[in-house]
Amino acid sequence: MPISNSLRYLNKKYINKIISRWAGKKGSPFSLVLHSGRKSGKKFQTPVIAVKQDSKFLFALTYGAQVDWYRNILANGCAGIKHQGKEYKLEKLTSLPIQTGRKLFPQPSAFFLYC
Length: 115
Description:
Radius of gyration: 13 Å
CATH class: Mainly Beta
CATH architecture: Roll
């Protein structure tokens, strides 16, 4: 079920700032994507739901592929991520079909992807 634009706006302006305080830290259910604006070049940090599988990361695009952080990574070709207290470099992004991606997420993260 798609998330409404009004909820997306509230998350971007307010809730993400709160979540960013612990996102990326060990034990946090959220990771922190470190990216630059595709037009402005400004540095951003965005909390996301991500899981690490081997040397790769799988992201939940809960608002779809048109979100700024994802578009910035695609445009720039790279970004960083803080995940469980460690920093990694993101390169060579690929997309998966939604159903494939959902099956790869472990619980409890997968639960939120079906809401």
